[in-house]
């Protein structure tokens, strides 16, 4: 076993009641494939629906040798400030052809998009690695990718990218275009980062680019100190479109990187991580 270098970092999960067995499997594989060599702690956030009895079940599910810390999110189900009360949820945000319920799924998106950066424990970290309960490391990782990112001065790491469905991103291209029109610094950086947006008449024909951020490595300090990045985060949050249209944190993370980071210098696709999340993602470089 090797002690992690001088990095304040943690693997972070967000869980809900009933996911004990999934969490146990994900953590067991993480322990076998990575944490045995580099024993970073694991931070498990529980949403505010979990009871004390269910919390006990999560404790029992932790594999031996994993340094797990549990944190209850007492305000997880709170809507953004100013969000209208008493609306009919059947008209907003719920996609009837999916099994992802409104508003709990939207609260999850908002947590990873914004709220995670405002949690006091996370704000003390140098890096966090997001994992989901249905995310599994399938083979040994032969290097400390967190340390590697720190040494190379990187802000964001991911394992795969793709495109989201237009049905989940209504108005996102228009929002980004309008934001660039009113924010000169973001517009200049997006130009240098070769951000492409479809023409207005074609925007409903394209799905926005995304990172598969169910596994992501994030430099907390670099992002929370990046005023341009956090301004875009807040602008999205205040639009309520995570709730109205179910905008996901995966495409939002991509456009935030293009608008607020020196993309070629700060963003990297991570190699050598054989990873499963609703399909196998094995990036060999």
TrEMBL record:
InterPro entries: Glyco_trans_15 (IPR002685), Nucleotide-diphossugar_trans (IPR029044)
GO CC terms of this entry: Golgi apparatus; membrane
GO molecular function: alpha-1,2-mannosyltransferase activity
GO biological process: cell wall mannoprotein biosynthetic process; protein N-linked glycosylation
Residues spanning the signal sequence: none
Family under the similarity heading: Belongs to the glycosyltransferase 15 family.
Name the record gives this protein: Uncharacterized protein
């Amino acid at each position: 076993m090797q002690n992690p270098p001088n990095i304040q970092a943690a693997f972070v999960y967000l869980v809900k009641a009933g996911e004990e067995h999934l969490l146990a499997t994900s953590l067991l594989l993480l322990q076998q494939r990575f944490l045995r060599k580099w024993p970073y702690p694991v931070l498990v956030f529980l949403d505010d629906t979990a009871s004390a009895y269910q919390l006990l079940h999560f404790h029992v599910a932790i594999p031996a040798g994993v340094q797990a810390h549990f944190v209850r999110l007492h305000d997880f189900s709170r809507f953004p400030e100013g969000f209208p009360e008493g609306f009919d949820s059947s008209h907003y945000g719920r996609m009837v052809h999916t099994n992802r319920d409104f508003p709990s799924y939207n609260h999850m998106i908002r947590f990873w998009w914004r709220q995670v950066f405002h949690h006091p424990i996370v704000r003390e970290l140098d890096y966090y690695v997001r994992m989901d309960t249905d995310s599994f490391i399938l083979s040994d990782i032969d290097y400390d990718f967190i340390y590697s990112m720190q040494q190379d001065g990187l802000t964001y790491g991911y394992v795969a990218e793709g495109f989201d469905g237009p049905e989940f991103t209504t108005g996102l291209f228009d929002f980004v275009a309008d934001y660039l029109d009113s924010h000169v610094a973001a517009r200049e950086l997006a130009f240098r980062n070769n951000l492409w947006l479809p023409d207005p008449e074609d925007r409903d024909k394209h799905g926005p680019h995304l990172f598969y951020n169910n596994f992501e490595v994030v430099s907390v300090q670099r992002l929370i100190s990046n005023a341009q990045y956090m301004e875009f985060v807040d602008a999205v949050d205040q639009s309520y479109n995570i709730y109205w249209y179910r905008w996901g944190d995966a495409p939002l993370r991509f456009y935030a990187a293009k608008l607020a980071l020196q993309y070629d210098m700060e963003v990297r696709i991570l190699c050598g991580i054989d990873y499963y999340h609703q399909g196998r993602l094995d990036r060999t470089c």
